[in-house]
Amino acid sequence: MKTRQLLSLAPSTALLVACGGGGESITAGIDAGGKDGRVGIVSKGRISRFGSVVVNGIVFDTAGATFTIDGAAGSESDLAVGQIVVVRGTIEEDGTNATAETVVYDDVVEGPIGAIDVSGNKLTVLGQTVVIDSETSFDDDIDTGSISGLAAGDVVEISGFVDANGNIVASHIGLEAAGGDFDVTGVVDNVDSAAFTFEINDLLVDYSSATLDGFPNGQPENGQTVEATGTIGGNGELVATTVEFEDGDLGFEDGDEAEISGLITRFASASDFDVDGVPVTTDASTEFEGGTSADLALNRRVEVEGVVNASGVLVADSIEFEQEGDLEISGLIESVGSDSITVFDVTISVTAKTIFDDQSGEDLPQFDLTDLSIGDYVDVNAFDSAGTIVATRIERDDDGGEVNLSGIVEAVDEPQFTIIGIDVSTDSETEFEIDGSEVGAGEFFAQALNRFAEVSGTWNGLAIEADEVGIEEEFDSDDDADNDDDDDDGDGDGQGG
Fold it and tell me: Which of 132, 346, 382, 409 suits 165 as a labelling partner, its CA being 20 to 30 A distant?
């Protein structure tokens, strides 16, 4: 049915509310009030746009910055929207403008795709499971700009967050030339010091001829995080030329402001957990947006803002539960405002954290809201926050002549239905599916209400005239798409393995 890959995601039911600390709404950037002059800032997260580098809603002036790309000297032009970077610098009192001193990017894995599951939105690369979601960015040399443009054997470089089960949630996927060394970063398991081997998830690493760097006891040990670089051996193992100990040090100094986004990778309690390996604590003054302290759990996607203490722990001033863009809206822009666009008569709000990516023929490297115009074709991922449609990602494409809409069916009046206030009309030429199987119109409409639907067709100015519509498997409104793999081992403890 599908002419492009649409992601089947659980509906977002969370509202953006602030709890504690007076209940004020949390905005993008660091609260640097009360501090004289500039203060140190460390920000780790995905690049949302260029024109400087914007990470976690903070605009970093990079004119004098030093760039390190995969361990080597580089430049801003080596980076791409969606890649995860660590930026150190100083921030102004306004909390949103900063000057970068260093920008560091390291991929999580680079190697050939061993297996690909288009319907499940997953890849296997060097024995690592790579999960693709609505926020994943693709290089513009990947056909279709989605998983369907990849094939087994393609060499890819993955930037992403590693969850508590060792899976990589991809933020950016790029194609690389075949040949050369491959690399993977992960947690060591099953060390065999006699055979000089260990495992990283499903990858066997042979380090018998490798240069070892930075290990506290001189050798790899179970539970350590390492980066292994090498070539593929005859049995599919990685024959390492170097293995480097990764201590996770982001260069924190006592009193640094910090803003870290990622998945909760260790959880002991609501006041003792790690985000992407960074230790975090909360206190009575911590504010929460999009949830409460009770919602903190393994593999929840959060952004933490606060101050680093003398022990290197991030004391959270605020924690935002990041919402995944479970709505997809693809069509022509009808108007552009100072902080919004309109598509299908629906106003879509843009925030400092909205990812902008130009996949059109113009291919602007520095691209944001000011570059959009009426008539541009955009593919928007968004979520519904108490009736406000908020864009997590806006991608400009060349007009494909087809519009798309994905979301929860909120009203049914056969032969029409409605998603986020957008009417969808069907007729005798429309093709209907339920869970991938063709059905008649009557069966579709009998089951459509409150189901997740995907629509493709044309926009007539009042409604989408559907060529194809499909509803997917039912979702529990309490489920969180970020927690699908929390309990892979089925023991109920919320952890895999």
Answer: 382
